[in-house]
Amino acid sequence: MKRLLLSTVAFAALGAGTAMACEPDYTGVTLNVSTQNGPAIASALAAAAVGWEERTCGTVNVIEFPFGELYPKFLTAMSQQTGDFDVIGFVPAWLPDFSTFLSSMPAELQEGSNWDDIHPVYRERLMTWNGEVKSATMDGDMHMLNLRADLLEDPDEMAAFEAAYGYPLAAPVTWAQYYDQAEFFHRPDDGLFGTAEAYRRGGQQFWYFFSHAASYTNNPSNPGSMFFDPETMDAQINNPGWLRALEEYKRGLDFNPPGALNNGSGDVRPLYAGGTVAMNIDWADSGVLGSTEGSIEGHVRTAMLPGSTEIWNHVSGEWDTFDEVVHSPFLAFGGWQLAVPADSENPEAAWDFVAEVISPEVSGQAIVTANSGVNPYRFSHYDNLENWSSVFSEEEAASYLGAQRASLDAPNVALDLRLPGFFSYTEILEIELSKALAGQVTPQEALDAIAEGWDALTDEFGRDTQLAAYRASVGLPPM
Amino acid sequence: MENRSLRTIGLVGCLVWLFFSFFPLYWVFVTAFKPPLAVSQGATYIPFIDFQPTLQAFRDAFSGIRGDFFGPIVASISISVVATALSVFLGAMAAYSLVRFEFRIRLMSGLMFGVISIGGFVLLNGTFDIDVPYALLIVLVLALVVSIWMNKFALPGPVLGNNDVTFWFVSQRMFPPIVSAFALFLLYAEVGRAGFPLLDSYLGMVLAYTAFGLPFSVWLMRDFFSTVPVEVEEAAQVDNIGRMRIFIQIVLPMSLPGLLATSMIVLAFIWNEFLFALLLTSGDWQTLPILLAGQQSSRGDEWWAISVAALIAIIPMVVIAAILGRMMRSGLLSGSIK
Residue A317: how many CB atoms within 10 A of its CB? Predict the structure, then answer.
C-alpha cells in the first residue's frame, strides 16, 4: 500500500513537472513543417524543432520536397485546403501568389526587442504584403562580391595593377573596376581566372543578371521602377540601363573559366573556394565554403556589389549622373521565409514554432552551423563577431558581416522581383537571356523579346491587378 | 581467318558498347565518393589518383540531413510491389478476357455513359449540392448500369471490338500524366474532405499506381496470352473445369515468363514515377523519386549528393530485377509450357 501511495505521488509529481515544462503546452500537437530538401534550411528547421519540442511537448514533422516542386506543391495544397502543412518554408518571390492562403503573423510577435532586432528591409518590406505581415524571414540573402586577400593584398599584384590601370588595387567599387580586376587576374595559363558568375539557364542565371542591372536601373529618383514602370506597368527590361547590364554580364564570359555558360550558382561557389578564380558573385555561401572547405582559408574577403555613377531614368529617357558612386546591392532571392497557411489546424502552435526558429538565440546558432543555409538577417547577427570564430578569422568575419550589413543599409538597396506569376515572367527571361548569352540574338533583341513577353503576360494576368501587386511589392501606395 | 577477324571486330564492338553502357554507372559510383571541389574543378575519373575519395556524401545521406532516406525506401518498396502485383493480376484478367472472349460495345452506349455521368454529376453536385465523392459514386454506378443495359439493344452507330477496347486501355497512358495526376489529386482531396483520407496514404498510393500500371499490363499480357495454345484450355473445359480455375491454375502458370516480364516493366515504371508521388504524398508516404529530385536544391547541383541518392535508389530495383530475371531463366518456367 505504501509503495502504491509513493508511486501515485511520484507519478502525480512527474505529471505536474511535465505540465510545468510545457510552455505553452502543445502536448499531442504535431506540426507538419515543409520546405526544400536538406541540408540547407531543412536542417535548420529540424534543429529548431528539437528545442521547440522540449519546450512545448509538441511534435514537429519536417517534410521535404525538391526545390523545383515546392511552389506547385504548396499552392495546390493551400488552394485545395488539404491542411497538409502547418508551416511552409518558401521564397519571398512566391508571397504574392501565396498571400491569400496565408494567415497573418499574430500581433504579439510584431513587437518587442526580438521584432526590432530584424533588419527593416526584411521586417518592413519582404515580410509584408498589402500592409500585413504574412511571413517571417528565417534567412537573409543577397548577392555579394567575394574576393581574395592573398591576391588583393599581395604587394607585387598591387604594384602591377596600379601600373596597368592607374589606380590602387582594392575591392571594386564600380562595375568598371570589377572588369578591370577580372581582366588583370585572368591568367588561364596559370590556372587562374578573373571571375565566376552563373550563366546556365536553370542555374539561377537571371539573379546574376539582375545584380548587374540594379546598378543601372534602380533609380533613386523613381522608386520601384527597376522592373516595371510603377505608373503604367510597362516592362522596363529593354531600356538602355538593362542593355548596358546585359552587355557587361555577357562580357564577363571572357574572364570566366572555360565552359562558363554551363555554370550555375552551385558551380560558381567551389570555383572561388578552390582558388580557381580571383573573385565571384554569389550569396553568402561562397565565403563560408572558402573559409571552411576551400583552399583560400584565411583569405576570404567580402564586399558589397559594385555600383555606378550613372543610372537610367525611364521618365526623362536619359542617364542620370551622380557625383558619388550609387550602390544598389541586389537582394537576390531575398532569403527563405516561413509562413502559416490559413488552413492549418494548429495556427497558434505553428506561429509559436516560427517564433522559435527566428528567435535571436536559435537563429544565431543556425547562421554559424555548417550547411544550415541560414544567413544573417538580424542586427544581433551582424554585431556578434565572436559567434563566427568557428567559421572565419576575425578579419574575414568583419569583412563578411560588414558587406552584408552595408548592403542592407544602402539607401538604394534593390529588392528582388515579387509579382503574381513570378515563374511565368522569369521563364520568358531565362529563354531569351540564354539566347543572348549564346550569341543567337543580340542583347537588344533579347531584351525587346522579354519586354514584349512580359507586357503580354501582364495583360494576361490583368494589368490593373499586376500594377497593384507590383506597387505593393516595391512599397508604393495604391494608385 | 576471316571468321576470326569478324569475331575480333565483334568483340571490340561489344567491349565498346559495354564501356558506353557501364560508364554512366561508373561515373555515378565514383562521383558519390568525390568531395565538392573534385566535381566542380574539371573532370576527375580515378579515385586516389585524380582525387581523394570521401564518404562524406554517404554520411550526409544516412545522417538524415539530406532528408529521411529510410522512410521513402520502405514506402517505395511496399507501394510499388503491391501496386505492381495488383495491376499485373488485374491486367492479366482483362487481357485474358480480351484474348478469349469477343466484346461488342456499341459506341452509343459508351456515349450514354459519358452523358449520364457528366450530366448527372452536374445535376447532383450543382443543383442538389451533394458532395463531390458521393455525387461521383452515384452517377458512375448509375451510368455503368444504364450503359450496360443499353448495350443489349441494337443502337445506331458503330460497334467497338476487342482491339478498340485494348486501344482504350493503352490510350490512358497517351495523354500527359499531369492531366490524370492533378485530377486524381483533386478527387483525393474531395474524398478526404468527406472523411476518407486518401492523400498521403498507403491505400491512395496503391490505388493510384495500380491504375497507373494497368494499361501496360493489359497491353503486354494480351500478347503473351495470345501465344498460349487454346487447346490446353479446351481440354480442361472438356473436364468441366471452371473458367476462373483454368485461368489461375493453367493459363497463368503457362504465361509466367510474360507475367514476370510485365511485372518488371510495370515495377520499373512505378518505381521511377515522380508526378503522382509528388502530388499525392506529403510526409508519410513520400517515395524515392521525390527524395532523389530533392538533392538538386536551390543551392545548385550537388552532384555528389545526387549520385549517392541515385545509388541508394537503384539498389532495391537491381535486387528485384535480378530475382525476377533469375526466375525467368529457370527451367521451372520453360517446363510449365511443355
Answer: 9
